[in-house]
Design brief:
Elements: E1 2-8, H1 28-44, E2 50-53, H2 57-70, E3 77-79, H3 88-99, E4 104-109, H4 113-122, E5 134-140, E6 143-150
Helix pairs in contact: 1-2, 3-4
């Protein structure tokens, strides 16, 4: 069995309209939620073999908190520009390719790709997948299963 941790980036700022979507930083809530979720999740789930992040600034900043909480070596961290606003099918294929080498991976990315991946592959019925949400998904013999779903408002 393989394990996939899907993490949506924390809430980003729209304060500076001249900044590109790719370069948007975290806002006040995002700066609160990213360390909160990293702390909560990493106490329950063992560290992944590798963590992959979209190249967007908000995803990379969110990833930094999980790397720190899991005490991962920076060599376990990879920025993958193709994860920025990718389709759910690209996200799925990305994970499947990595499962050839790793047993547990984490991916920090965006909606709608995460939400669509979970809805199509895991029958996700929670509605929206919120910013800084975390899903633990297992994969076995061609079947995806949503094992856990955490999001910041569970801990407020």
């Amino acid at each position: 069995m393989k394990n996939l941790y899907l993490i949506r980036h924390a809430k980003s700022s729209w304060k500076e309209p001249h900044i590109s979507d790719y370069e948007r930083p975290l806002n006040k809530r995002g700066l609160h939620d990213a360390p909160l979720m990293a702390d909560k999740v990493t106490k329950v789930y063992p560290s992944p073999d590798r963590i992959f992040s979209s190249g967007a600034k908000r995803a990379a900043l969110t990833t930094d908190h999980f790397i720190s909480s899991w005490e991962l070596d920076k060599q376990a961290y990879h920025i993958e520009k193709e994860l920025y606003l990718c389709s759910f099918s690209l996200l799925e294929q990305f994970a499947l390719n990595l499962f050839e080498k790793y047993n547990t991976i984490a991916i920090v990315a965006h909606n709608p790709s995460i939400e669509n991946f979970l809805t199509i592959n895991c029958n996700f019925k929670e509605g929206k997948f919120p910013t800084c949400g975390f899903a633990k998904v297992s994969y076995n013999n061609g079947d995806w299963n949503l094992d856990a779903f955490h999001y910041p408002k569970l801990y407020y």
